[in-house]
Design goal:
- With 93 residues, the chain is α+β, with helices and mostly antiparallel strands.
- It contains 2 helices and 5 strands; from the N terminus they run E-H-E-E-E-E-H.
- A 5-stranded antiparallel β-sheet has the order 1-5-4-3-2.
Length: 93
Amino acid sequence: MAIVHARLETPQAQRLLTRLGRHWGHKFEVEMEAGRLLVPFSDEVRTWLQASDAVLDVRIEHPTQAGADELKGVVADHLQRFSKDEELVFGWS
């Protein structure tokens, strides 16, 4: 199981989490509550987000590293589009 994590410093953390949850809620059974979001893409592929005042933590679990790397791009692309003019910095680890 590959696990990757990014910690984004942004004043829009909660807004981004909410927008992403609503967006993916049309396709997946997302769980969203009080600054937390779980997106179960499948039984084995999940993304968690947690928002605080100025930080958005993103965690991706995927059975393969290649799949995790691909999903990093998908998540980053969606968050960047939802952030309007703010340039987000993803320091994946």
